[in-house]
C-alpha cells in the first residue's frame, strides 16, 4: 500500500514536508521545509521531526525556497544519510539559500546565547552547523527536467517545470506495488501563467493522487498588464517629482523579475535616466544563478535580451549597479535623486531596505513600491496599511513618501490558475490540497467540487493512500 503522510504545510503555507512510503521505494520525503516568521533561533529550536531522520531513504525537493528546503541541513545533522533529488537549477540555487539561512541563524544564535549567559543560563548548541550544510549539498543530485530518474524498487521520479522560481518543479513519483504502477504527482509551488522569465507550469493528465498547493485558493491576482503600466506610471511621477524609489524585494524571483521589467522599459525608451541599485548580496548571487540558467527560462523573454545583444539579466539593464559591500550600500545615501533602490528584506523586517527608509521615507518626493505579500506584524504591512508614524533603530520616523502596492506580481497561481491546472487531469483523479490557509483551501475545494474534481484537505499527520 502506497501512502503519503502530511507532516507540514497541512492547512498552513510553510514547513512543507510530506512522507511517502511504498513497497520497494522505502521512506521518501517530499520537501523538508522550515516554518517562517519570528526569531530564527526560537523557530529552529521549535522545529522537530516526527520521524527518525536516519530512517529516511531519500528526499525529493520541489524547489529552493526555504519553506521547502530549509530543514535539510538539520535532517543531515540528525542522521539522514541518503540522496536529495532536485532539478539542476535548484541544486545551483540551494547553496545560496542554505548558506545565507545558516549565516542568519548563526548570528541570531550568538546574540541569543550572549543574553542567556548574561542571565547565568547555559548557551544553546546550534541545531545544525555549516558542515551539515556542506554535507547536505554534496548529497544533492540535480536531475534535468523531464528526464526519468530511476530510484530503488522500480520506483522513478520525473521533474516538470512548475514555473514558480528558477528550478522549481512539479514532481511525478511512480512506484510499483504488486506489479501495478502507481503515480503520485506533487505540484510543489505552482507558478502563474504569462509572467516574465518563468515558463508556464507544465500540465499532466495521469495520476493516482495529486497533491496540489493552494496558497491563493480563494482569490485571483490583479491583472499583470495593468501592474506593468502602473509601475511605469509610478516611476514617471516620481522622476518628475525629483524623487527616489525604494523597492523592498525578496532575493529570489521577484528581484530578477523587476530587473527584467526595468530592462524592458529601458530598451523601449520608456525609462527615464534612473540609476538602479540592486542592494542585496544575496539577490546579486541569485541573479548570477538565474543568468547561468537563462536558456531554461521563458524563450520569448530571453529572445528580448538576444534582440538587444545582451546575454544576462545584469547587462539587459545597463543602468544597474550591484551593491555588494556595506560601503557600496552606504554610498547610495549620497544620491539626492534619480535612484531606484531594490533591497531586502521583502517584508522590511530587516536587511538593507530599512537603512534606505531611514534616509528617505520621511521625504514626500520619494516612493516606496511594494511588489510582494506583506505578512501581518511586519513593518512592510504597517506601511502598506497606511501607518504614518513608525519606529526603526530606536527612533521615530514619519512616512511622507508615497506608498504604492503593485498587486499583479506573484510567483503563485491564483485560484483560476489552480483550477485550470487541476482540470488537465483525467476525470476522477483524487486531489489532496496542501500549502494553503484553511479558508483558502475550503474555497478552492468548493470550486473544484463544482467541476467534479474530488479534493480532500488533509490535516497534519493524516495519511492518504494511493
Ligand atoms: Zn516557493
Describe this protein's structure.
With 466 residues, the protein is of the alpha/beta class. The chain folds into 2 domains: 3-219 and 411-465, 4-Layer Sandwich (Metallo-beta-lactamase, Chain A), CATH 3.60.15.10; 224-409, Rossmann fold (3-Layer(aba) Sandwich). It contains 15 helices and 22 strands. The chain has helices spanning 40-46, 66-69, 72-77, 88-118, 130-139, 224-240, 254-267, 281-292, 299-307, 313-316, 326-331, 353-360, 379-384, 415-422, 438-450, and strands at residues 3-8, 17-22, 26-30, 58-60, 84-87, 140-143, 149-150, 156-161, 169-177, 180-186, 209-213, 245-248, 275-279, 320-322, 339-343, 367-370, 389-392, 395-398, 402-405, 431-434, 455-456, 463-465. The strands form 4 sheets. A 7-stranded mixed beta sheet has the order 6-5-4-3-2-1-22. Strands 7-8-9-10-11-20-21 form a 7-stranded mixed beta sheet, covered by helices on one side. Helix 4 (88-118) runs antiparallel to helix 5 (130-139) and helix 4 (88-118) runs antiparallel to helix 8. It starts with a strand and ends with a strand. The mean pLDDT is 95. Residues 63, 65, 164, 189 line the site of zinc ion.
Amino acid at each position: 500500500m502506497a501512502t503519503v503522510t502530511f507532516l507540514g504545510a497541512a492547512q498552513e503555507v510553510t514547513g512543507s514536508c510530506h512522507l511517502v512510503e511504498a513497497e520497494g521505494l522505502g521512506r521518501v520525503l517530499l520537501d523538508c521545509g522550515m516554518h517562517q516568521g519570528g526569531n530564527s533561533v526560537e523557530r529552529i529550536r521549535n522545529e522537530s521531526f516526527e520521524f527518525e531522520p536516519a530512517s529516511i531513504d531519500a528526499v525529493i525537493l520541489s524547489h529552493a525556497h526555504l519553506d521547502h528546503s530549509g530543514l535539510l541541513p538539520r535532517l543531515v545533522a540528525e542522521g539522514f544519510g541518503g540522496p536529495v533529488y532536485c532539478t539542476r537549477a535548484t541544486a545551483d540555487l540551494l547553496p545560496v539559500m542554505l548558506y545565507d539561512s545558516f549565516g542568519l541563524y548563526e548570528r541570531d544564535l550568538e546574540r541569543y546565547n550572549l543574553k542567556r549567559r548574561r542571565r547565568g543560563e547555559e548557551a544553546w548548541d546550534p541545531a545544525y552547523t555549516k558542515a551539515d550544510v556542506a554535507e547536505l549539498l554534496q548529497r544533492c543530485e540535480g536531475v534535468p527536467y523531464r528526464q526519468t530518474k530511476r530510484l530503488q524498487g522500480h520506483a522513478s521520479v520525473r521533474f516538470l517545470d512548475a514555473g514558480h522560481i528558477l528550478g522549481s518543479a512539479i514532481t511525478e513519483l511512480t512506484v510499483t506495488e504488486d506489479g501495478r504502477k502507481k503515480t503520485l504527482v506533487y505540484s510543489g509551488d505552482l507558478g502563474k501563467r504569462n509572467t516574465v522569465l518563468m515558463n508556464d507550469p507544465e500540465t499532466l493528465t495521469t495520476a493516482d493522487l495529486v497533491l496540489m498547493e493552494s496558497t491563493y485558493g480563494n482569490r485571483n491576482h490583479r491583472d499583470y498588464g495593468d501592474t506593468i503600466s502602473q509601475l511605469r506610471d509610478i516611476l514617471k511621477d516620481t522622476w518628475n517629482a525629483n524623487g527616489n524609489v525604494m523597492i523592498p524585494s525578496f532575493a529570489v524571483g521577484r528581484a530578477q523579475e523587476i530587473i527584467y521589467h526595468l530592462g524592458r522599459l529601458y530598451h523601449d525608451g520608456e525609462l527615464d535616466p534612473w540609476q538602479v541599485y540592486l542592494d542585496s548580496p544575496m539577490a546579486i548571487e541569485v541573479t548570477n544563478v538565474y543568468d547561468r540558467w537563462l536558456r531554461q527560462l521563458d524563450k520569448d523573454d530571453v529572445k528580448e535580451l538576444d534582440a538587444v545583444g545582451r546575454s544576462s539579466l545584469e547587462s539587459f539593464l545597463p543602468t544597474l549597479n550591484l551593491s555588494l559591500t556595506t560601503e557600496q550600500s552606504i554610498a547610495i545615501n549620497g544620491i539626492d535623486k534619480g535612484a531606484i533602490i531594490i533591497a531586502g528584506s521583502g517584508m522590511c523586517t530587516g536587511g538593507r531596505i530599512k537603512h534606505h527608509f531611514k534616509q528617505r521615507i520621511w521625504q514626500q518626493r520619494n516612493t516606496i513600491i511594494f511588489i510582494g505579500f506583506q505578512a501581518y506584524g511586519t513593518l512592510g504591512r504597517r506601511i502598506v496599511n497606511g501607518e504614518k508614524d513608525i519606529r526603526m533603530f530606536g527612533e521615530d520616523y514619519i512616512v511622507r513618501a508615497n506608498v504604492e502596492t503593485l498587486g499583479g506580481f506573484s510567483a503563485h497561481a491564483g485560484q483560476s490558475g489552480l483550477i485550470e491546472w487541476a482540470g488537465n487531469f483525467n476525470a476522477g483523479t483524487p486531489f489532496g490540497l496542501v500549502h494553503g490557509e484553511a479558508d483558502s483551501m475550503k474555497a478552492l475545494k468548493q470550486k473544484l467540487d463544482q467541476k467534479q474534481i474530488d479534493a480532500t484537505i488533509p490535516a497534519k499527520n493524516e495519511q492518504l493512500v494511493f
